[in-house]
## 1
Amino acid sequence: MKYCSNCATEIEIKIPQGDNLPRHTCPDCDSIFYVNPKVVAGCLPVFEDKVLLCKRAIEPRLGYWTLPAGFMELGESTEEAALRETMEEANAKVDLISLYTLTSITHVSQVQFIYLANLPEPKFSTSNESLEVRLFSESEIPWDELAFPTVKNALYHYFEDRKKGVYPLREIILTGNQ
Ligand code: ZN
């Protein structure tokens, strides 16, 4: 940001008194504008032995396959955001089972919550955000055409965990150096 949203004075970047990091601050009205990580929530929807993926219709990673997920809106819970994103991107109504992967992506300051979810019936369709939506069995997963490492991680763990029938929460840190 360049100007104070409170009084329109030009913003300065400085360490406020009592703080230890540079912040966007207003030299006139003393407002401090904190910039914090963004939160993404989504689902890994499962129908019988298949998982639901969406082919992205928007950048970044247009044309690559992803799980339905997106940025939280103000006032939402992570669960509500995951359900909303699944409806928006795949027109699919799912039941959340449990939180499955919790990923800190430090180089882009993002936190992602992916829920394991049950798709009760194979009802879904494309949307403004998805060129194609379909179910994949394990052998059909397009591993080289997945949009993000978080999608790859969630699918990898899911197919491993399915062999044992238990789906523990995975806490993952991505630093951009992988
Ligand atoms: Zn100001």
## 2
Amino acid sequence: MERLFMSSIRRKVTPLNGQWHITYDPQRRGEALGYEKGPEPEGDPVYVPSCWDLQFGRYDYKGVAWYSRSFVTETPGGCRLTFHAVSGQADVFLDGKKLGSHYGSYTKFRFDLPDLPAGEHRLVVKVDNEINDRDTLPLRFVDWFVWGGIYREVELEHFPSLSIDRIHIRPKWDGDQVSDVTFCAQVKNWTRREIQDVFFLESDSFDKETLTAVIPAGAEQEIRFVLNDFRPLLWDTEHPHLYTFRIGCSTDDLYERTGFRKIETQKDKLLLNGKEIFIKGINRHNDHPELGYAVPPSLIHRDMQILKDLGVNAIRGSHYPNDPVVLDYCDQMGFLFWEELAFWNHPADALASPRLEQRALRMAREMIERDGNHPSIVIWGIQNESKSSAPEGKALFSKLAAEMRRLDDSRLISFASACGKNDICFDLLDIICWNMYPGWYDDDKPLDDLEERFSIKLKDIRDWLIQNGQNKPFLVTEFGAGALLGETTFESGRRWTENYQQKLLENGIRGILRSQVVQGFFIWQFCDGRTASLSRISIGRPRCFNNKGLVNEYRMPKLAYYTVRELLHQIPSFRQGKGPGQKNKTKGKSGGKK
Ligand code: ADA
């Protein structure tokens, strides 16, 4: 997959992007018609990756479609077929035989093919992006547009011998400095014979390390390199130092890039590398009105440049695991990132669903496995505004919090609550986060005293949290107002105008700062975005868009953008002076961008 740094030198990869064919199957008759061998006629041309909603007349299609294409391999041997994102449920067939299935629209999945013969092959994917009221992520009632299709890259990697995979970096800390770093990688032997090989770890930031290992036939095993004297420059929002390195053997290699930083809490404070940090963030859907989820890196980069101009230091990837390129830019540009599972307003009966539990646990494992090396990710979010005031919520979110901590104990766990003082899950979290909409949903009072009343409300919540044993950092994870671009007015107090949004956000931010009990906020939201058109949510969504963006869907700024920008640039990220001083000079130079 395309990233912002080199992925491999030695590996042979056959991209399977480009022209496929698609056959829509609204009656779900494909199995009966033997579509797994490839529908005949083969359907309409479609470009992969893309969202099928762009196809003429297919906007907002929810259901099944069958993708098919052929490809040729020149030499027989071990291969890995990877899908970087397919919406909903994917059932994958190769040459008429089922390889397997995957549920989850936002994370990659793959199939190992130990002995793929040379010649032409037929690849068929049944995609079902149905969303329901019981056990999907998200449910049918949701406030974003659930795009369909094979919307990220598909590739075939060739492994004639050994492969390197799943690189994980585990720093040990001595106070606020790295004491040693363990680099782990999974090695797979794709052959029927034992192989001894020399493995290496190299970077332009430290001396090359090597080790020899024997990998039994067909086995997978972990190799480890431990650096004891590597003192990297630390990563933070003002000094996003990154290190690129490569792990390899005689027949394969893999690059990875990471940064070294520590995120922790100390009572009600958030500390980044031991310094108290204040979150001035924004919520962002990874979405474009014409491209859907298939946002190209160039547009992601432009968004990130706008956000840098705006002055935010954090992004909440509302409300699903994001594109790895988004995370690469956050690593590079020094944005903290909150990545979360695709829950949105799941009611108690859905939270009790065993299938939902299984799907959510899998999404959590895939998200953390895929994204664990990004220094920008500091918070794993369990859910958004679901029924965490119900026993069903407590049961499921306890399991998810435990699993996420088991997989990664180096980051903070939280979720965005809309249950207020009825929430019974705050003890599961490292940070307490509330979505609040003063001046929009929460009240219909004039905005003139919003700063004061919001500040008072926040102090009341904070007192309640302390009384209830939750002396933890407290964030406002959403607040904002809708505004239609171009709708300006002299009449104060008229909702949906740019002036109303501007005044609400200014007073909201000032209220948060005035309260002095909040460690940060995420404005809802960066840009306007399409939302579900058929569900009842659209009644409050002019033009079937969520219009609470500071810019519209084409990133055209509203009045509020400039007001928020002026405010954010006055708020320091680090409470006590500048960012952490760089104590130790590392041996190599930092950066190493490939
Ligand atoms: C909720 C939800 C957001 C969005 C927002 C709104 O807080 O988490 O996804 O729907 O409300 O605009 O109403």
## 3
Amino acid sequence: MSRFDLHSHSTFSDGLLAPAALVARAAARGVDVLALTDHDDVGGLAEARASAAAAGIKLVCGSEVSVSWEKLTIHVVGLAIDPANARLTEGLAAIRAGRSTRARRIGESLAAAGIPGAYEGAMKYVTSERLVSRTHFARYLVEAGVVREVKDVFKRYLNPGKPGHVEHAWATLPQAIEWIHAAGGQAVLAHPGRYKVSKTGMRRLLTEFRAAGGDALEVLSASHTPEQFTEFATYARLFDLRGSTGSDYHGPGESWLDLGGLPPLPSGVVPVWKDW
Ligand code: AMP
Ligand code: MN
Ligand code: MN
Ligand code: MN
């Protein structure tokens, strides 16, 4: 049976490894099929694709699209997309465009909370001139000794109600799904267990996702507990969605789960790769 890891990041967004190094690591970890899914961009896919051939693994072209839904930011992973599709690349460019202004405002908000120089500090960690993210701020806040670890930053900063939070309008849910479908891909609701919603809210989200043409649910994710693997396998069956799996790997020392580190998809869930 092939080992799938369908969610990962490179230096083309907020990952620590260049696409070639990421692919090499996936191959060394026994991954047979890897999707590179950088946030709101497809820039790393050419390098990833070229190195996958040499490493003897299959590379699935992907992107993780930022979406504003109700009061939340959610993520929709597009898998098996054509990275050259103009509808997709123009859509992604449009939602990337606001990131620089947002970053300046994040810096101002942190300065107002007594943390100066965060914008300049975050910029040192940016590895693609096309994309600055909260992760880059988180890395600087760790460097500055404000917080011990990247994952702890988000408990005190950069999230709603906390210093460094800035409202931002990403794509709508129907837009994200439409761009992914235009590029021939499948739309996967990423790490659903991370969204702060009630049971009713989750049902509303899944209903809207399904109605907008969404294809699959990320049942297995490093963000999920084993109980949530079961919970979202049930949701996938209930809402007639396929199931996906992804470590959401960002890099050594930062992600607790390595590439390919998740168990097999629970039985009864139709894999998103069924027709690949
Ligand atoms: P952005 O797209 O700029 O809003 O940044 C979102 C990124 O921040 C995510 O893709 C994660 O890499 C990171 N992030 C958000 N919340 C957490 C968390 N609780 N722990 C670790 N990383 C997080
Ligand atoms: Mn990220
Ligand atoms: Mn995400
Ligand atoms: Mn991700």
## 4
Amino acid sequence: MGPEMKFDRQQDDALTELAVLFGQRYGRKPTLLSRAPGRLEILGNHTDYNEGTVLSVAIDRAARIAAAPNPDAKDGMVCRLYDIKGHSTREFRLDDLDNCRRGDWSNYIKGLIVEFNLQGFKVPAFDALVTGDVPLSAGMSSSAALEMSMTLILDRLSDARLTWLEMAKIGQACENNYIGAHTGLLDQISSLKGKAGQLIYSDFRSFSVANVPMPSGAVFVAANSKIKHNLTNEYNERREACEEAVRILGVKALRDVSPEQLEQRKGDLRDMVYRRACHVVGEIARVADGQAALANGDLTAFGKLMTASHESSRSNFENSCPEIDMMVEIGRTLPGFLGARISGGGFGGISVHLVQTPFAESYCAALGKAYLQRTGIDSSPMILTAADGAALWEA
Ligand code: GLA
């Protein structure tokens, strides 16, 4: 996971191609190009909206957008979008954004424009070409990648000049208000603040972010269970359970409770609410332990924390699923295994594994084969590299 990977060149190639395709479709050059990566959550599950801490990485898979204002649009109100991968076109009016069509990819763009408008920034009519290689609905935050890539464009088109935190919050507001998923800020911050070869440590109370070097000797492998997760129902329920714990414990957030304090108040909480809180409080402690392990270059200890995190997801937070549990179990039997867990919101999506570098290729092959044999599902395990965060270029 060294910075030797040549991301810049790769980005340039993909964006150059996107600019050419933009010209072919819209008959003029794009003025703005952007790229924003997906993310892997490494430790600190469901801690972001509890004012906790998280270790994540931005990955070498990203959403990319080429865009230009369209002064000739019908009465200056029509935006045109084209998604290259899905071969799908969308056209909408800037004065008719309240028609969120359930499940439609353009919601992530319309919802952002609504938020820019609410903050007093006027987005002009524009055309955009969208593409990306973040697997969809897999727990790698393809939606946050699209949001942050588009936010960079909208920020420039509307001349808002937001800070990175304001941009992350606009993406979160789009999810919360337009999409209806009451998610935290982790995905947006990870997409913006990644650094090649480094983890991202985020504190969701102070909103401070630091990059933490990944010790050499291990890589992250992600495998897609292909179980689709839905972050609008069960995610919101988990959030409500955390809020109930906060109310009963009389604290500002679960960040304020230590594992020992929670144990003392166990009797005051319903069992389900106690177990949800136990997960969050335990995760915040594991992030602190994980940071110490990284600082000592102790990948074995770090891997164990990842597996402990999964066990807590499985039994306390109940946001795993049998297929992801199976992936973790298969991983444990393979050479090179250091740790594995569910990553992201949960209820499906991906498992992330920490694997000793020399075994990474054989680990991917063996994990994919065993999961396929047992479930009939191709999980395409892949080695993911920690990459730089989102960027905007004026073409
Ligand atoms: C999803 C949400 C994030 C975070 C994770 C769980 O990815 O979008 O805000 O809550 O789940 O840690």
